[in-house]
From TrEMBL:
Lineage: Bacteria, Pseudomonadati, Bacteroidota, Sphingobacteriia, Sphingobacteriales
Name of the protein in question: DUF3857 domain-containing protein
Organism of provenance: Sphingobacterium athyrii
Gene3D superfamilies associated with the record: 2.60.120.1130, 2.60.40.3140, 3.10.620.30
InterPro entries per UniProt: Papain-like_cys_pep_sf
Amino acid sequence: MRHFLTLFLIFYFCPTIFGQNFDFGRISISDFSPTPLDSNADAIVLKEFGQSAVFVDDYDHRVKLMHEYHVLIRINNKEGFKKANFEIPSYKRGSYIRDHLDELKAVTYNLENGQINRTELENKKVFKENYSAYLDLNKFTLPNIKEGSIIEVSYRTLEQDLFNFKTWVFQDDIPKLKSQCIAIIPASFTYNVVLRGPYKLDDQKKGEVLKEYLFLDGIRMDCSKLTYTMSNIPAFIEEDFMTSPKNFKSAIYYELESIFYPSTGVKKTFSKTWKDVDTELMNEKTFGGQLKKTDLFKTTLSTLLSPNDSKLVKANKIYDYIKKQIKWNNYLGKYAESGIEKALEKRTGNIGDINLALVTALQAADLDAYPIILSTRRNGTPNSLFPVLSDFDYVIACVDIDGTKYKLDASNTYLPFGSLPLQCLNERGRIIYSKKSSDWFPLASEEISEQYYTLIGVLNDQGQLKGTLTISSQGNKALLKRQHIAKFNSLEEYWEKLDEEMPNVSLTNAKIEHLNEVDQVLNETFDITLDVNKQEGSTILSFAPNVIDRISYNPFKIQDRTYPVDMGFKSKLQYTIQLEIPEQYDVTDKPQNVSLALPESAARYKYMTQLNDNKLEVLGSLSFNKPIFTVDEYFSLKELYSRIIQQQKLDIRLTTKK
């Protein structure tokens, strides 16, 4: 939910202050030459400029934010063609469009036979997509794109959200030679300004005063002009195991704190305390108003619960009831979309409908239950300096049973009681009490996500490995597996797909246990036949000790990672192979036994093979004993994976005895 602000002020806006922008269309042949930042880059920003200023729109007399944007990008290869696609958002409320786009110019330049040729974007090639009830997307693609093209785009938007002003993101997934933004803020406006990210500004001209720039509330008023510049900015590269990129990209964020009205001497404050937020949420009909509807559950609870049930049993029964009663409609939100009464009637709702219904039902059973608002991993980390409600996009339930607080999300059929999906494990949320001040609540999980592979079999003379494979999953691994299986029309279809994905392995007589008992270990069992590598006329057999899920991919590739590795869970992968081999064979070559560990055993890899008579046993495990690794630990993790991959490339070789 975005904040709406209408101010009845009189401004005089002077557009001549937009004077530090670079000239449109001034392209030189030297712009087509590569720079040191171009190395391995699909495209590069040569120049980027933006400027934002508060003004009053003559058309509807609303106070708005005028934002001007201008960018010059060189496309280096075909992978960079995607940078010629633009989507400019226009936020709205229902049929009322709040933001407006105009003065769009877009040109493609190509260097051909020593001449710079230009191709302009036609107005009819700009399309407006009704993305949702709250958002339109203005979409266009630059014409005549080739490898080596330079594209130039400039436009102006009139926006109505003054609360967060205009975030300026210096860092993107391609490098930038120069990025500059200017903010022009009336003296009567106070914003909290935060610079995030690892890179420093070139310069920052604070307090440059524009004398008598605005006519505000009956008097001429000064403005502050803030200039922020950053040069030679590396590309931000996303890797596995990270939360939202906006937590780590270098960017300037603004939040409106207050406005002073000179004519009355009144100061209106917009930055809230958490006490203000608590009151606002509890008075909001789509949040606190839903928690008052305990009567909706009284009849159901009288038949669902037994007088002899413990508090924990009651909570489990109510949790299972809500999961079955309301299906998630795939929309997030901390507020109820339909309201819990309609959600129960229609048996569908958003996250707010489902989990506020859960809190209300738990309270109806006289259990201590409260909502926790949070920001999902892809949405970013909530501001810790001051409360910003728009930072939160999700709500879960918390029930306190004899001093133990259980975090609950009833939107996912396959989530056990007390577990959260990975998207919710984002540092901390805010628990909203009804009779006392809210407080931060840790969302970290102590749960260990585990998967065990056990293969017991025989290697026969014909070069076939036959046996029984058991895969046991629990925690997040079981959740992901159950969700994956649910995508298939039947278990047979899932097993067929699994068999197709392993061309050298035949799986038969498949069985599965506890598919729907989500608090139990998920067990899969298969009869397996594997053709071992045996060259014609050779006396040598060779096979990989990791029959399934061999690690061949290193998720850590970049040279320097500037953000932590956040796996969300502790985890353990373990495999055990017990093979009976023909008596006429000797094990002549096998991977060395290894034991690798990070400091304080934060991560550990073990591998061991042993031969007793004609019984070959292979034991392996990979454990991550904490969910988050710091930037300083990144190289060690990268090296650990590299060594595991090298070690798992080696086969076990058997040779006929002489």
